[in-house]
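Researcher: I'm comparing several assemblies side by side, and this is the next one on my list. It has 441 residues spread over two chains. Same procedure as the others: predict the full complex and return the structure.
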Amino acid sequence: MVPLLVSVLEAAFVMALILAILLVAYGLAIRTTRTLTRGSEEKRRPFACGEALRPTETGLPDASMYWAVWRKLFRSFYNTIRDKVHTGILSDWLFWMFIFLVILAIVFVVVMA
Amino acid sequence: MSLPELAFQAIIYPGALFLSIAVWLTQWYYRKVCARMQNRMGPSYTGPFGILQPIADYVKLFFKEDVSTEGSSPRLSAALLSVAIGSVVALTLMLPIAPRPIAAEYDIMLAMYLLVWPTIALALVGVLTPNPFSAIGSSRLFSMTLAYEIAFVASILTPVVLSSAFYGAGYSLYRSCLEAWRLWSDPRTFVPMALSLISALLALQCKLLAKPFDIPEAETEIVAGPFTEYSGFKLALILALHDAEVVVGSLLITMLFFGGFVPFTWLSWYIALIITAIEYLIVVTVVTWIRAITGRFRVDQALVLFWKYVLPMAAIALIASVVISWIA
């Protein structure tokens, strides 16, 4: 078999070839449809089920998007940890800190070894 | 392999032209089967049994106006989708259906890279248009990617690791496709193969955004998710990428887990070809069947399913295959 780098270059060539063909087809499609249809500003507005919405107003906060699902997924885990760890008693806090430092020490020893 | 030979394979067989024909027939098949399972007619009017309907849909999109929303990046979207389709074509050239396949030791890493491109492209085209539905759809797709893409890669790795250990496939996708079907007859490797096949089918279902995992493009909630603002040629590219993923994903599972025509090379070539087509149709039918009979999950339900059941199943299969290989 050939070296891996040759395979990577062959795959890259295939991707570049298909990219070139499809971009030419895209250009052709744009030219064809430009003569068949009429553009209007109305069409270029963001679709929001009939609501008037400017492009600058379409953003959503990251907290509602990428992390929201994971927060919901691990909510029971967070609740359990909060109830067990955040008891408000100093000795509990010291206990968890001690556990955390022991784990950190074990990881440090394993990595150094 | 010379460049003209590679270009011929990329454009004609098993590249763009072959893939287009496979996309046409596969799309017609799964639309028809899904419709019949749901007591509907499916494509019926364009050509005999509606077989020309997928072609009519693509031709219609080619001549429809390509509307670009204010503030979007239409050229970048077209380029991203084209590169992703290119990655799917390149992946087809790594399978044993290619006369001169792209193959090297450890090329499974290249295959994994090519497999991820379509997902990234579909998620990013949503981000490139200013629309709340697109943003939510892309967000859901990114969240789900962290679950199913890992499961799919782990499922694909299991037969590759085992065939490399037992039959010297050298972590090559092409060589693994030639050898992995033998693993079903070995009692040591049967269980990891079965577990990875189940998890690969479920992860493929999610990768193809088919029900019950069509959460990023849930039309009753978020219009069309990342594809809300797309029309004309770019929408055709999105559909082509999705359909090409159906073909190549099913073909990958057919060749890697069942060997395709390889176990039947002692028969006439056309019988071996028919058997391969039947194996491929069985995989497509399983995907279509699950799609037809299930309702959509919520995104957190899908993630729980993958993190609690599918991903551990794929991980156990992969760890078991590594241990079995090490002992062997």
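Model: For your comparison table: The radius of gyration of chain A is 28 Å.
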